[in-house]
Amino acid sequence: MRTLRIGTFSPSVVLGVAAATGALDAAGLAITQVPARSSPEQFAALLAGELDAAITSPDNVLAYRFVADNPLRSTADLRILAAVDRGLGLSLFTAPGVKDVDSLRGGVLAVDVPTSGFAFVAYELLARQGVKAGIDCEITALGSTPRRAEALAEGRCAVTVLNAGNDLRAEGAGCHRLSRARELGPYVATVLASAGGHEEESLAALTRVIVDTAGQLAAGRLHELASSVTARLLKLGDDDVRRYVELLADPEEGLVAGGRVDRESLDTLVTLRTRHHAGSADLAGALLRDTGLLDERFLPGAAP
């Protein structure tokens, strides 16, 4: 049995279901989920070999593979092994008592870090409502999604983006869903990523288990098991568990059957990053010159 340490921001229901079905055991894998406080911390650990893989925003992989002006100030051979989901409810949320855009002016926008990941989703959704992040509202780095959800519910920030069950808990705490990331067009929010040089046999097995389990959940199967795993991992009530499990099969925001990052979603990621980060101006060109970002060797139907 090979134990893999997987960096996550929120507990992975897909991994939880894969463990409960016995798919991980059958693949000879045991998984330890390692919560990240921030994306720089997660990628520093991945590059140091303290993590075997990460379930993370694909924009983080773009940043640490291509963009020298990233929080770690270095780039490396980082790869996307599979697309996992399209957002799982990823939305712009306001704090209790903050119900309209005008109330955001002069407030605090909480992000993981200002120059990667879901921060760009927040900037774009705010811009579409006439609010300029960094001008009309202050940008503050508060780390991972669960940490930001807690800060929002406590009123320590006025607005942030949340998903993966954190959005449902925020609604229960009186926060308001202002707009959804799906309004930005095709989008992949979460991927399985690794660094070059990691042991490939175990990563291949992990990728296949995640893609197969996600495919079953996306097709609406394993409903009862998914419900029990969701309740245990995400600490949600019955109604929110039902909403979350239904969302897993949603074609716009749910899990990605087959595990491939589609071109349109990659284009959305590149557009958001180049629009909201001056240091990423050459990203589209870098992607054309370097075709190693998407490592699809372990996906169903890949050439042997």
From TrEMBL:
Its main location: periplasm. Gene3D superfamilies: Periplasmic binding protein-like II. Coiled coil: none annotated. It is found in: Periplasm. Residues 1-26 form the signal peptide. It holds the Pfam family Phosphonate-bd. It comes from the Bacteria. Keywords: Signal. Belongs to the bacterial solute-binding protein SsuA/TauA family. This is ABC-type nitrate/sulfonate/bicarbonate transport system, substrate-binding protein.
